[in-house]
Amino acid sequence: MSLDRASREKLVRALAEAVIQHADELTSLDQAIGDGDHGLNMKRGFEAVLATLPGLADKSLPEMLKSIGMTLVMKVGGASGPLVGTFFMELGKALPEQPTRADLVAATDMAINAVKARGRSEAGQKTLLDVLVPVHAVLAAGGDATAIAAEAMQAADRTMPMLAIRGRASFLGERSIGHMDPGSRSASLLIDAAIKALEFEARS
Amino acid sequence: MNSPNRGNVGIVIVSHSPKIAEGAADMVRQMVGNAVPLAWTGGDVDGGLGTNVAGILAAIETVWSPAGVAVLVDLGGAETNSEMAVEMLAEDRRARVVVCNAPVVEGAVIAATESSGGSSLAAVKRSAEEFYA
Question: Can you give the residue ranges of the DhaL domain (chain A) (predicted)?
């Protein structure tokens, strides 16, 4: 995978637009089982990321990812800032400039472990890890872009019957069951956007 | 006079609500006095409810003491953002800042009381956390 400057800019725009366009949906999911600010918080973070374009795309892929992560950490304003921000920062630390698929598998594994440590959480607790972990499994097993994007969406749906153990939704206990986890939904949107932007890159 | 003054442990109060953080800091001042370096921070970068890493970093800077800094937090995001802020400190400072697993208001008063007596960072943290024990 080789991303030139235009592709990096396209990728950032795709990530930001996915979150910004779904901000209301994320907020309504969060109103059901959280404090109702996930959409607003993530939108604020990704608007701040967008504001660093075009300079952001001038950076190498690892530096660009670290920079996105740092912006999210500083601007989001909720627990999702450090969680999603850590994912991007660790991805930036672990990826070489011209990553192979194996590099991507290894780097996302490291980034997921950093998110687990940051949130003291594991998959199965109704958090963004319930999207990251199964999507990583499909990536590691050699799944194509369509399979990875499909898994991201299905994995977010699968958080609906889960009981929240971590995060604000855990305060609700049994009442968290039946609602999709907003963090899972935003993670699935980001993965879907990245896959589509990168797939376009691979074809063009 | 010539004995080195290592200073008292600094206290940082972090709440999603700036009003709660400020109010808790007022309580600490009333009850413990001015012997302890004290700072509060609350709200997201737009001024809404939430916490922000830059604000937490600035608060830690304000109360920096060679004896260390104890951070009291309210809900999950405050804790996660505070842990992130600690990790972003310079390496020589990182080990001297602790996030306490304690209720924000009671923990801040107890931590400040302990600190005002010249206790170590570990003792300040332990006292605050004993509230849950």
Answer: 6-196
ipTM of the modeled complex: 0.85
Domains of chain A, start order:
5-203 (1.25.40.340)
- By Cβ distance, the residue of A40, A44, A78 closest to B77 is A78
Rounded mean pLDDT of A120-144?
A: 97
Alpha carbons A39 and A73: distance in angstroms, whole number: 15
What domains can be seen in chain B, in order of their start residue? 10-125 (3.40.50.510)
A43 CB near a chain B CB, below 8 Å?
A: no
pLDDT average, residue stretch A30-44:
92
Q: Which residues contact A174 (CB under 8 A, 6 or more apart)?
A: A163
Phi and psi angles of residue B12, each rounded to the nearest 5 degrees, phi first: -120, 130
| Cα–Cα distance for residue pair B101/B21, rounded to 1 Å | 16
Question: Cα angle vertex A38, ends A36, A41, to 5°?
Answer: 120
Beta bridge partners of A70: none
Residue B5 has pLDDT above 70, yes or no: no
What is the layout of strands, in order, in the sheet containing B38-42?
B38-42, B10-15, B69-73, B97-100
Catalytic residue among B16, B28, B42, B96: B16
Asked if A75 has any chain B CB less than 8 Å from its own CB, the reply is yes
pLDDT tens track for A56-92: 999 999 999 999 999 999 999 888 999 999 999 999 9
Q: Which of A137, A42, A53, A44 is nearest to A83 (CA)?
A: A42
Predicted confidence band of residue A203 (pLDDT cuts 50, 70, 90): low
